[in-house]
Amino acid sequence: MTQVRAKARTERAGERGESRFAEGFALFAECLLTGVWIAVASLPLVTYPAAFAAGARHLGRRLAHERGGWREFAADFLSAVRRGWLVGVAGWAALALVWVDVRAVREGLPGGPFVGAVGVLALIGAAVAGLRAAAAWWAGASWRSLLARAGRRTVLDPAGSFLIVGGLAVVVCSAWFSAPLAVPVLGAVAAAAVAVEERYRRR
């Protein structure tokens, strides 16, 4: 099945007169553009899960050579944000708890380092599960169900989860080097989540 899809993509690229390099570069550029869309849609702060879900859907259409642009992205975002904003609030609450843990470590409270380490690892795991849930989102899907299944995949597919962690690390490093660089890289993180989920489905 994988070989058939790859052959079909190659044939379609050939019909359009594109080389593999040109097609890959176009996909890379699409990832960067999607990162900008995700960043703009995430400005209300609690809408980032819906923004990543819409970005993942857009990149999925791009990989399938289906038509789609910012209008489809906006429609997916509006659909995902209806319940997705609650996930965004929960994410910020988790971040606040980890911040309290880190403060406990700095204050030298007994058991602080252990609690802080557990908190940071739990936050990273939650971020990975959230991205995997966003990559698997479709219109009308339940975020609670998506997150529950994504949590299981995060544990059962550690290799894929580490790939997403690597993508998040690239965003952090980009932001540390130059904050504007982190914006387009968000699209690469969404693409990594889509690729990881597709890889898991093909196992």
Written as H for each helix and E for each strand, in order along the chain, the element string is HHHHHHHH
N/C terminus separation: 12 Å
**Biggest β-sheet description:** none
Q: Helix count? A: 8
Query: What shape does the CA trace take?
Result: globular
Q: Strand share of the residues?
A: under 5%
Instruction: Give the averaged pLDDT, no decimals.
Output: 87
Roughly how much helix do the residues carry, as a percent range? over 70%
Q: Radius of gyration, Cα only, in angstroms?
A: 18 Å
- The unreliable regions are 1-8
- Secondary structural class: mainly alpha
Please tally the β strands and state the result. Answer: 0
Structural overview:
The chain has 8 helices and no strands. It is 84% helix and 0% strand. The chain is mainly alpha-helical and 203 residues long.
List the helices and strands and how they pair.
Layout: H1 2-15, H2 20-41, H3 48-63, H4 70-106, H5 112-135, H6 143-156, H7 158-177, H8 179-201
